[in-house]
Amino acid sequence: MSEEKQNCPTSFIKDKVKRKKLASGICDFCGKEHPLCYICTQCEFTVCQTCFIENQKRFTRSGVTWVCPDCLNWETL
Ligand SMILES: [Zn+2]
Ligand SMILES: [Zn+2]
User: Fold this and answer.
1) CB 21 within 8 Å of CB 41
2) What is the predicted pLDDT for the residue at 20?
């Protein structure tokens, strides 16, 4: 009698669900809802395109990647 239940650890299939880097959300800078925001995949820091461009020097130097000011995670644009 074996009653082993095989519980698949969900952490292994986490990669399957890829979070959107560009999605609608409430900007952490201006507090307004925007249809297109940059979202950190680590901590879900959200910044709208307007604020991103206004604070571009804080986020990006190369224009290819941006750094989340909250968790210092690198994201590609
Ligand atoms: Zn904003
Ligand atoms: Zn972050």
Assistant:
1) yes
2) 75
Long-range contacts of residues 53-62, Cβ cutoff 8 Å, at least 24 apart: 55/29
Query: How far is CA 72 from its chain centroid?
Result: 11
| pTM for this predicted structure | 0.72
Ligand 2 is an ion; its neighbours by CB within 5 Å are: 40, 42-43, 45, 68, 70-71, 73
Q: Where are the domains of the chain?
A: 20-76
pLDDT tens digit sequence for 4-51: 666 655 555 455 456 678 899 999 999 999 999 999 999 999 999 999
Q: Closest ligand to 41 CA?
A: 2
Dist. CA 60 → ligand 1 center (Å): 16
